[in-house]
Amino acid sequence: MIRFFVQTLLQDGPNILLVDTLLNIDITSTMTDSELDALRAKRLAELQQQQHVGGNKNDQNTAEEQRQQQEDMRNTMLSSLLTQEARARLNTIALTKPEKGRMVEDILIQNARRGAFGGKKVNEEQLIGLLEQVSKATEKTTKVNFDRRRAALDSDSD
Hints:
Blueprint lengths: L1 E11 L2 E11 L7 H49 L2 H13 L1 H17 L9 H14 L11 H4 L6
Antiparallel strand pairs: 1-2
InterPro entries: PDCD5-like, PDCD5-like_sf
Protein name: Programmed cell death protein 5
Organism: Rotaria sordida
């Protein structure tokens, strides 16, 4: 039995992959050309499958890196917009109610891009005012209606 160490370069667009392969071939048996071609085709399919799986992982890693970079930029912008007390309050709200915290962060970033703060930092009192406005806008009202006429029309008491 002979062992071969083969390095193969695969190119998929801008990505180039170097694949190391260890092949064990039994020399004592005689292989026909069709068997060799089938073996080569099988190995090529395996390598292409590995390349596609690796490509998907690279795409996922790239997307994750981009998301992380955007989140870092967002946090940097919020840190420059808010005083430490306001930032601490916003972080506490984001821990208890993530969707509300995210909504307030979005409002702050949009206002900063429009220049609504005039280059000044938002203090805790201003943040509390903004939070009250958001609470009023997202407040859910529950209304219960009783239909008392049904009780009067009930014929079970006869």
